[in-house]
Amino acid sequence: MIFGKSDQEILFRIRDCFPDAITETERKGEDGKPYIVYALKAEFLDEIKGLVDISDDKDRYELRFPGKRQARLQAQIPSDKTLIMERGIDSDFNETGNLFIEGDNLDVLRMLQKSYRERIKMIYIDPPYNTGNDDFIYQDDFSQSQQEYLKDIGVLDEDGVRQISEMKDKLRGRFHAGWLAMIYPRLKLARELLTDDGVIFISIDDNEQANLKLICDEIFGENNFVSNIIWQRASGGGNASDVVTGHDFILLYKKNKDLKFYGDESSRGKVMQIDEKQLRVDDDVVRKHFGRYKKGIERRCYYEELSEYKNKNQIDDIEAKINKGEYILIKQPNNKHFIGQIIEPGQRKILYSIVQNILNSQGTDELNNLGIAFSNPKPVDLIRYLINSNLPKDSLVLDFFAGSATTAHAVMQLNAEDGGNRRFIMVQLPEEIDPKKSKEAYDFCIDNLPPPPKKMGRRSGGLLFRPLPISPASVFGAPEKKSSRSIRKRVSISAFDPFAWWIRYFLETPKRLWPIPAKPIFMPIVRI
Prior knowledge:
The chain is α/β, with parallel strands linked by helices. It has helices at residues 7-17, 42-49, 68-74, 93-96, 105-116, 146-152, 177-193, 209-221, 285-290, 306-309, 312-324, 360-368, 380-387, 406-418, 439-448, 472-480, 484-488, 500-506, and strands spanning 22-28, 34-40, 84-85, 99-102, 120-125, 194-204, 225-232, 247-254, 270-274, 277-282, 328-331, 337-342, 354-355, 372-373, 396-399, 423-428, 432-433, 458-459, 462-464, 491-492, 525-527. Among the domains are: 7-61, no CATH class; 269-342, no CATH class. 31% of the residues lie in helices and 19% in strands. The protein has a ten-stranded mixed beta sheet, with helices on both faces. A four-stranded antiparallel beta sheet has the order 9-10-12-11, with no helix packed on it. The chain has a three-stranded antiparallel beta sheet with strand order 17-19-18. A hairpin with a 2-residue loop joins strand 18 and strand 19 (462-464). The model is unreliable at 88-93, 134-147, 153-173, 263-267 and 451-524 (pLDDT under 50).
């Protein structure tokens, strides 16, 4: 097998060597309409069999699951849909290049092949963990009967593996096949979007980590596996009867492990004059190595505050590095000092196989500070850490399970701090918030967000929340009419609505210490 290559791409390669081996044939799309694809002639296979050894070993090593063939085919079906830019809010797209796409991510990944093939530098996704939680917008419980599963993958009906339906029984995963059928074609398509030196990070937990590793080995190539990063997402004890699990995994693959994805080392850190020399300094070293100095506060910890916010072991470690010259003190206008580290020429940032001091509770706190309750959002610092692992400042980042849009937040925050031009593509299903089932969320958005245009009005009894144009009027106008208490009241949004990133970025309290750019950050919206 040619790892990660689409069937049609493989045929193109065969055609280059054996033009007479390829013909055209007809397939039917999900809508039943025919389309033309290339195919291998049967007689060519007969000729090949006489020239080379063919393995017909049914006991060969590979990952198998019911419906795998149909899942593979889903990645080959061309899209019959179109991305439509929202009229009236696309004027600044050429300046920003950021996209928020509403729609099924399988359809979106198919469509992105046309314009973004081999253009994405980094992909980060946090797919459903197959935990049995039915509240997530991508149904998080893939347990089902065999008959139901066959319907979902297109064996018993014409829908194919588009969206695995919510199941009422709690049998775990139908041997995980449903989850595998969901993720397989998406990863196949995602690989084709990566640049040759691109990378993909995938968050996962114990439920599907082993299966995901096997799938990624098949799609990206076992030789392109980089690391299974352990992220300590929680600390302290718990109520587990056997072992307290306080970590998740982040699988890291390169499209081509022979190529480095690291960015220009000269673009990292801040240039400062030290001892009459222009040196590049990382002045955020304490937070990166020892965690935030105070819950909910973003700024760096001053040297003078160490005794108040760090434990004795951490302080001793920092003092030892200062005495050795590994860390330096950087004086600030208020006569206090940040702790920094000089970046030596040729030195590059590295990722560690264990990530600590970035807890999942930070992500929850970040949204709670905005008055929003969201299930298990990833902390911005975690995504910053991954993006900032020497990724060039002009990189394009994709997240096709956007959730609460932490990835977009991290990209914008890094750009605001270092003047970078990183861009993002976020993909998420639009979600209706039912005013009866999710009254708090519904009322909160009605009270605090500008009303959507008439053409984005009500549907099916609930308000279909769609992103609005980002302009000074729509961003800063509505929140000023409400008290901070109103903005910060706790609401529970069980399923993501596309305003989440908008709320996350623009409704933060005055305590936010990284600046809002003078020119509004614009993100055009396209939908299927």
